[in-house]
Write a structure and sequence with these properties.
Length: 202
């Protein structure tokens, strides 16, 4: 594969100098009020003071690697921004010819608008710009709207978010692996690969 760069999260000092030193003890920042009933939940990884933080969000559908990545790429909600959470990833709104996207749904908020096909409006708008393919223990993410190389921390946001969701899926089907591998490829075919072995626990 052309232009492949491996990010083994155990062996990237630049990334983990930033990430490991500032991870909150809890590993999770609440993004709203408590959820009631059987509400599908996912976690996205945002950035706080140069560190990854796992943030729970409500989902309007099935929780899998694709839905988690799409939620992450919509960026922080107003509630999350108020908690000084941010992202280093280019927003889906920057994708050429993309339709307006909805704001991701934090805990305690009303669900996002759902289109007739069963997905959120943001997922439908971003489907041409982002491709997520998953199988047991492996997730491939193709960011067709991102031409530049992502920083290590931005890549870790994607790796940890996708791996968290895929691990949940694998556990539910009884096919859980010791680690989930995620490959992130940009529009120029440059790929970065890493695993969830050093992601902050949710």
């Amino acid at each position: 594969m052309r232009g492949v760069r491996r990010v083994v999260l155990l062996c990237v000092p630049a990334l983990w100098t930033l990430v490991s030193c500032g991870i909150p003890a809890t590993g999770v920042v609440e993004a709203g009020g408590p959820a009631y009933g059987l509400v599908p939940m996912l976690r996205v990884y945002l950035v706080e003071n140069g560190s990854l933080v796992a943030v729970p969000r409500r989902s309007v559908g099935v929780v899998d690697a694709e839905s988690a990545v799409m939620s992450l790429l919509e960026g922080p909600t107003d509630t999350e921004r108020a908690k000084r959470l941010t992202t280093l990833l280019p927003p889906l709104a920057a994708a050429p010819a993309s339709a307006p996207t909805s704001t991701p749904t934090p805990l305690g908020s009303a669900p996002a608008t759902v289109d007739p096909s069963g997905g959120s409006a943001a997922e439908a708008a971003g489907s041409a710009a982002v491709s997520v393919k998953a199988r047991s223990g492996v997730v491939s993410i193709h960011l067709r709207y991102v031409g530049e190389e992502l920083s290590d921390l931005a890549t870790a946001q994607l790796i940890c978010t996708a791996a968290e969701a895929q691990r949940t899926t694998d556990t539910g089907t009884g096919t859980g692996a010791e680690a989930v591998t995620v490959e992130v490829t940009n529009a120029r075919g440059r790929s970065v690969e890493g695993s969830d072995e050093r992601c902050p626990e949710g």
